[in-house]
Design goal:
heterodimer; A: mainly alpha; 75% helix; B: alpha/beta; Rossmann fold; 2 domains; six-stranded mixed sheet; 11 helices; 34% helix; 27% strand; binds adenosine-5'-diphosphate; binds magnesium ion
Chain lengths: 265, 323
């Protein structure tokens, strides 16, 4: 017997400017550890990019008219944005919600849960943007960036951060403990990375797998990021943006409802 | 025309009518009424699981009641709970200071949640740290603080918005005596300066020391309410004699010690008596005849004292263990 009816738990999010001090709280923590945090976020994609990029690049001379490492660069920007946002809303938000009880403290002040969860989402996207920019700078230094449209990558990275932040917050709302997040990475994030054109073009995969990839957000991020990095205008821009935005809005709505049920019951 | 604008001057800091909260089939708050007067310390006294925390969560608008009405700072809750919390400070049962920050940063960040600008908060930080006795810990990390220091910082944090009403959920549970006394001194100081305080506790001495009025809560119901003195006077006899030890008198039906004595004689002297373990508790208005009788017994030991809140509490909530 639910004490709160379902339509009330999953009512529309009510976002106000009061999310800002919550965002600032997370930013202040990050600022204390900014350098190790950025370097840590940079290490993984760089190892992949240069390890795989030059290693496989020896075997595969070109993909679609560009070197393999140039092809891979866009995939790395997208997947590391995804990972950065996901880690933040899974491990860090869960810690603030469940372990440190930071959200409880904030809800005793005049800030509602809607604003707290929204702040976590925007913060995850902001952090993804920070590490995305760091990656862009490094690959630009290595001459892997065509500068014509590269600034469009910044809002794109932020949007990808919002999409995956929102999806991750659904998991956080459901998680009994940190262990839960391993399944999310193993069963969802990693397979999606493999079929979404990050490491190799998705066209060579079976049709059913391609359909699956097209229903998930990462492939749409890659479809936009790759041409932009190579100085070209992407096709189907509206479709790709719509899918990413839909995951962001839908994921956030569901995550907020589940979090309300968990914390305000 | 009367000079009271919108009746606000008459508003109680917190008024609760007929509050109910059910979890599944378990009604953990089963019809609570209370009304705080501005400037008083009101204490909800109850054993573990009585529904104290749940009542506070409802009052703050953090969970939706199954029934009843709540007005916090004159505003209906949960509808306008967020606005009402502007005027309220909360010390939660579980410490939830921000471990990533120093003491001063904890206060700064928390003040921002009230919409205060950094200059205003920064100006308040020294006095808040002084109030908590933590001036020297301004830049200390939370992990380096003792339990008592954390509680005091949590109290200081709850004052960052200069609240009219301060709500504390078991503020001294788990603290050593020195730390508890320090918290009590600070609370008395706040009450003297006009802050309304709502406190939950399961410590009688805490309630007796601080409360202008208290309510004893058990299984989601208020069993009695009033000033500590009135509650004691209304609920229980003035004197208590505790009897224990061996007894050399003639026992009935195989009992021994204080229990045997109580079964043979306590009813003749005490209005009410109760045997718990090795001890007989005799409640009476005039202890003199019983004391004279006990002086003639051999082997028994006894202790005479005025009745206190603990006697009321145990009478009303029983002696069974709660977890
Ligand atoms: N979210 C919840 N879901 C189910 N039962 C709960 C929940 N919160 C509290 N309870 C139950 O309600 C009762 C009262 O709890 P609480 O208000 O925390 O008591 P107190 O603070 O007086 O110790 C307890 O039996 C507790 O197990
Ligand atoms: Mg409690």
């Amino acid at each position: 017997m639910a004490t709160t009816p379902l339509h009330s738990t999953f009512r529309a999010p009510r976002i106000t400017h009061r999310f800002v001090p919550v965002w600032r709280r997370n930013f202040l923590v990050w600022r204390k550890l900014a350098l190790p945090s950025v370097l840590g976020n940079l290490a993984d994609p760089m190892i992949y990019l240069f390890g795989l990029g030059f290693g496989i690049g020896m075997l595969v001379p070109e993909i679609g008219g560009v070197s393999y490492v140039s092809f891979l660069a866009a995939g790395m920007v997208c997947s590391s944005t995804m990972n950065s946002a996901s880690f933040e809303v899974l491990y860090s938000s869960f810690s603030r919600m469940h372990v440190q009880r930071t959200w409880d403290a904030i809800m005793n002040a005049p800030v509602d849960l809607d604003d707290i969860v929204f702040a976590e989402l925007v913060w995850a996207a902001s952090k993804a943007l920070l590490s995305g920019v760091a990656i862009l700078i490094v690959i630009a230094v290595f001459g892997l960036v065509d500068s014509r449209y590269v600034l469009w990558l910044l809002p794109l990275i932020f949007l990808v951060g919002l999409s995956f932040g929102a999806l991750g917050l659904v998991m956080t709302a459901l998680a009994p403990s940190y262990d839960f997040f391993m399944y999310y990475f193993t069963l969802f994030i990693t397979p999606m990375t493999l079929i979404s054109g990050v490491f190799f073009p998705a066209e060579q995969l079976p049709a059913a797998v391609q359909v699956a990839a097209s229903l998930l957000p990462l492939s749409h991020a890659v479809e936009l990021a790759r041409p932009l990095l190579l100085g070209k205008v992407p096709s189907d821009v509206v479709l790709h943006l719509a899918v990413l935005a839909a995951y962001g809005v839908g994921g956030f709505w569901v995550a907020l409802g589940l979090t309300r049920r968990r914390l305000l019951g | 025309m009367p000079a009271v604008p919108h009746g606000l001057a008459l508003a109680s800091p917190l008024e609760i009518r007929g509050l109910r909260k059910r979890y599944g089939d378990n009604e953990v708050v089963a019809g609570i009424d209370l009304r705080l007067n501005a400037g008083e310390c009101f204490t909800l006294l109850g054993p573990n699981g009585a529904g104290k925390t749940t009542t506070l969560r409802c009052a703050l608008g953090l969970t939706r009641p199954s029934g009843g009405e709540i007005f916090l700072a004159g505003l209906p809750v949960p509808e306008r709970a967020r606005e009402a919390r502007m005027r309220v400070g909360v010390v939660p049962q579980q410490d939830n200071l921000d471990p990533d920050f120093t003491c001063a940063e904890n206060l700064l960040v928390y003040g921002r949640y009230f919409g205060l600008d950094d200059a205003t908060i920064t100006a308040r930080i020294p006095e808040l740290l002084a109030f908590a006795g933590l001036e020297s810990k301004r830049d200390a990390r939370i992990q380096s603080l003792s339990g008592g220091m954390k509680r005091r910082l949590t109290l200081a944090r709850a004052l960052v918005n200069r609240p009219d009403l301060l709500i504390l959920d078991e503020p001294t549970t788990g603290l050593d005596p020195q730390a508890r006394h320090l918290i009590w001194e600070r609370l008395k100081q706040l009450i003297r300066n006009g802050t309304t305080v709502l406190l939950t506790t399961h410590f009688m001495d805490e309630a007796e020391r601080l409360a202008d009025r208290l309510a004893i809560l058990d299984a989601g119901r208020i069993l009695t309410e009033g000033s500590p003195r009135d509650v004691i006077a209304a609920q229980i006899e003035a004197q208590v004699v505790e009897v224990y030890g061996d007894w050399n008198g003639t026992a009935r039906n195989g009992t021994s010690g204080a229990q045997a004595w109580a079964e043979a004689h306590a009813g003749a002297f005490a209005r009410r008596y109760e045997v718990s373990g090795e001890t007989a508790f005799c409640y009476l208005d005039d202890a003199a005849p019983l004391m004279a009788h006990l002086a003639e017994q051999s082997g028994l030991r006894y202790l005479r004292r005025p009745a206190n809140l603990e006697d009321v509490f145990l009478k009303l909530t029983g002696r069974d263990l709660r977890d």
